[in-house]
């Protein structure tokens, strides 16, 4: 496999920098500083130190005995990114980018957020490093995730509601980029996923690969071999790249799970690789959901974190060369997996991560008991409990305990 | 018909409107009115769902046009219809990259040439990514207009020396939209760009008042006015679509455009 991205930020045909001229210099500056930082041992030590002492890494690798027994196939393991500070893998990247911003002398952070997990992570590191933080969030997502909105405000961030388009992650990202264009002289744009123009997909991967690096070591120690299959959910795809990247050269089946919403044969899904076509979104060449004239379509998923019409260019590349298989899980499948994991293992997953659980269960069922499946449990589900209450038909005043 | 590059004495007035805003036939009337009002080049915006370089005014215009069914091929064909109705000034197509990719880059240039377009401007296709399109543009005789921004700095020389048609200077940091003030450093920036450019240097983004135009004419070869005109279209939209009021509304639009162009024509002394 060729080394990606190349000097133009290309992963095969994908990636690149499709942005207004105003942003070219800021991107070049970030790229130059990132390369220096990644080659700087003291930068890496500082990053690891903060991950350990502030976020609680390494996160555990948890065997799921009850789930394994109930499914009746391969042994199932969970990489517990839900146990990170702030409740998801997003903090790994936020710490890395904040350190880079600090290195560049920038004290104002811009972030976009869908489910609110990246927004919370950005607001958290801003507080930790004494920086300002402005978070763009779609009005629809603000409704779906009001708890996270309040968390961001508690942490001292300014949350800007975005009312354009479908009022979700795509539109929040547009608005964050527009704000960056106007304020690039003194602001650092902290993208939350492996999307956007070069060097963001590479940078976010480098700050998320700690997931896969740790998991590999932990799995070898526990099982004496690598997992047979690794499953992760894919919206933009940062937890998936972080998990997959250290295993790309190994004989391990990698499966990315997109959000099929109400079904990939309906217009209501966010299955970008499964159903999308090649094009440019948010500065990168990748697969996206669009109409025949190149207008970007509004995606749909029960999960605000997967509700994105594009996908990281490295995922598009890994799909195009066949190294990673991309499948999808519907809202209903994710909700069932959400309940299953809660009831079998006492772990409430983020609804995003539940998509990975759903596909993993399906795969494990067909595998022999001496094989293993590793799931990237990218986040915890506290933020989704309200949505789930609504979804499962519980109303205020009803007996929540009877909900199945 | 005039083609690029044009004489820049007096400086060029380059208005921008969005194809299909508020309706395709109205866009043709507005183009005729702009030529009548002294436009030297027309920038015709192709509406896009996710216009990253545009502020709220042009976002709303794009949404109106898309709601009316405007597409990239239809916008290009609109140029053909403008030509039939008598629009003679050069027309630059302003479109984001993704619609061009979906139409196919060669088909795009072929259709643009066939319909009488004179150039192409793609705001999210920076110099480094533009090589193949630049070559295609040369093959089809349609220059790909380059942009430079206040952050371009050491990139200015590279971009300016390869510029075709005219060079578009972004006045200040930020997206398109009316601005009360322009940066004090704008004059120095424009002079720096002009030093490296062999083609006319036009300035745009945020220019909305005759006083700004008057100030800029001394330091550049042309002025692009977008959001201010699009705002006027938005304001006039109901009348522009009412058959018995359209003529008066178009005249009002033309008068507004003329007021913006006027400073370029007043007491202009060659530099």
TrEMBL record, chain A:
Residues 56-379 form the Tryptophan synthase beta chain-like PALP domain. Signal peptide: none annotated. The modification N6-(pyridoxal phosphate)lysine is found at residue 90. Its cofactor is pyridoxal 5'-phosphate. Pathway: Amino-acid biosynthesis; L-tryptophan biosynthesis; L-tryptophan from chorismate: step 5/5. One of its GO terms (cellular component) is cytoplasm. Tetramer of two alpha and two beta chains. HAMAP family: Trp_synth_beta (MF_00133). This is Tryptophan synthase beta chain. It comes from Geobacillus zalihae. The gene is trpB.
């Amino acid at each position: 496999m060729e080394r990606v991205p190349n000097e133009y930020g290309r992963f095969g045909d994908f990636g690149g920098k499709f942005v207004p001229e105003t942003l070219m210099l800021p991107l070049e500056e970030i790229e130059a500083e990132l390369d220096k930082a990644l080659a700087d041992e003291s930068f890496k030590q500082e990053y690891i130190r903060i991950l350990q002492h502030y976020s609680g890494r390494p996160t555990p690798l948890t065997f799921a005995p009850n789930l394994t027994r109930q499914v009746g196939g391969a042994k199932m393991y969970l990489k517990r990114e839900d146990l990170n500070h702030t409740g998801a893998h997003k903090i790994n990247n936020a710490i890395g980018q904040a350190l880079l911003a600090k290195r560049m002398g920038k004290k104002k952070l811009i972030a976009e957020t869908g489910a609110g997990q990246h927004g919370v992570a950005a607001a958290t590191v801003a507080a930790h490093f004494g920086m300002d933080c402005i978070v763009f969030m779609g009005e629809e997502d603000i409704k779906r995730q009001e708890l996270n909105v309040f968390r961001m405000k508690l942490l001292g961030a300014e949350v800007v509601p975005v009312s354009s388009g479908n009022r979700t992650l795509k539109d929040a990202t547009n608005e964050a980029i527009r704000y960056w264009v106007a304020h690039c002289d003194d602001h650092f744009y902290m993208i939350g996923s492996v999307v956007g123009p070069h060097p963001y997909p590479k940078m976010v991967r480098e700050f998320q690969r700690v997931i896969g690096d740790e998991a590999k070591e932990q799995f070898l120690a526990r099982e004496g071999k690598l997992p047979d299959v690794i499953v992760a959910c894919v919206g933009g795809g940062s937890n998936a790249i972080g998990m997959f990247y250290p295993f790309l050269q190994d004989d391990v089946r990698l499966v990315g799970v997109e959000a099929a919403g109400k079904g990939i044969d309906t217009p209501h899904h966010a299955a970008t690789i499964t159903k999308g076509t090649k094009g440019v979104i948010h500065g990168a060449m990748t697969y996206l959901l669009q109409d025949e004239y190149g207008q970007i379509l509004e995606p749909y998923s029960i999960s605000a974190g997967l509700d994105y019409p594009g996908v990281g260019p490295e995922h598009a590349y890994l799909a195009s060369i066949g190294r990673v298989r991309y499948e999808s899980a519907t809202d209903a499948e994710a909700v069932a997996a959400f309940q299953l994991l809660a009831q079998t293992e006492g772990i409430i997953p983020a609804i995003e991560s539940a998509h990975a659980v759903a596909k993993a269960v399906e795969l494990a069922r067909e595998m022999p008991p001496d094989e293993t499946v590793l799931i990237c449990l990218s986040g915890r589900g506290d933020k989704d409990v309200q949505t789930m209450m609504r979804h499962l038909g519980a109303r205020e005043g009803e007996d929540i305990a009877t909900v199945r | 018909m005039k083609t690029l590059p044009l004489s820049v004495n007096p400086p060029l007035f380059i208005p921008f409107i969005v194809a299909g805003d508020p309706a395709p036939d109205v866009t043709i009337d507005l183009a005729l009115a702009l030529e009548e009002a002294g436009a030297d080049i027309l920038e015709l915006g192709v509406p896009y769902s996710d216009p990253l370089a545009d502020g709220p005014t042009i976002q709303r215009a794009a949404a109106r046009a898309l709601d009316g069914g405007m597409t990239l091929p239809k916008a290009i064909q609109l140029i053909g219809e403008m030509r039939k109705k008598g629009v003679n000034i050069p027309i630059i197509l302003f479109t984001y990259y993704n619609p061009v990719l979906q139409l196919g880059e060669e088909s795009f240039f072929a259709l643009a040439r066939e319909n009488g377009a004179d150039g192409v401007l793609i705001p999210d296709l920076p110099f480094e990514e533009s090589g193949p399109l630049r070559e295609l543009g040369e093959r089809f005789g349609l220059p790909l207009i380059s942009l430079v921004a206040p952050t371009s700095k050491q990139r200015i020389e590279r971009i300016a020396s390869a510029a075709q048609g005219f060079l578009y200077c972004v006045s200040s940091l930020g997206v398109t939209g009316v601005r009360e003030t322009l940066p004090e450093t704008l004059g120095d920036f424009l002079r720096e760009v002009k030093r490296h450019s062999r083609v006319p240097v036009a300035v745009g983004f945020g220019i909305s008042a005759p006083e700004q135009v008057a100030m800029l004419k001394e330091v550049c070869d042309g002025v692009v006015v977008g959001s201010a005109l699009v705002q006027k279209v938005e304001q006039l939209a109901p009348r522009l679509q009412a058959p018995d009021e359209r003529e008066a509304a178009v005249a009002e639009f033309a008068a507004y455009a003329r007021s913006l162009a006027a400073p370029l024509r007043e007491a202009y002394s060659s530099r």
